[in-house]
Amino acid sequence: YTGKTGFELLSDQLKKLIVRHHHSVPVVVNDQVSVYDAITTMFLEDVGTLFVVNDHSLLVGVLSRKDLLRASMGNQDLSDVPVHIIMTRNPKIKVCEKDDLLLDAANKLIENQIDALPVVIEREDGLEVVGRLTKTNITKAFVELVKEDV
Ligand code: ADP
């Protein structure tokens, strides 16, 4: 018997959770697509966050539901506005990697008050998007932790 309290055991379990086992498939759009098309993609793919990539498939931005709502409030034709005009761009983008602790990624979501992080691989010329880590992924991991216990 380790003499650890239930809380310490739970905390040990939490620190074993790694991003690679919990993330979802990323949904990306090119930076030249219109706000209108991005809204369509968000509905069709049923996600709350889109990642924006350039022609080399490298991460250049993030689009949330509110970004798209905000853009819709103007009088412009949404088919004429490319998403790179309204997206959140570097250096503001928060990311995580497959080997990161789920706990560290969760902290990033909270500290930055955001719903999702792109899971990235660092390339010579930029970041390749390989996944999407959301609050839902973290909630699921939390629930699974209890299921394993019973
Ligand atoms: P919503 O806008 O639907 O509430 P978020 O809370 O995720 O969704 O987004 C809030 C703001 O933060 C938006 O402007 C969005 O572009 C930005 N944002 C979302 N995810 C990230 C991220 N991973 N890195 C940097 N900014 C982000």
UniProtKB/TrEMBL annotation:
Domain of life: Bacteria
UniProtKB keywords: CBS domain, Repeat
CBS domain sequence ranges: 18-78, 87-148
Keyword check for Repeat: yes
Endpoints of the signal sequence: none
Name under which the protein is recorded: CBS domain-containing protein
Species assigned in the record: Tenuibacillus multivorans
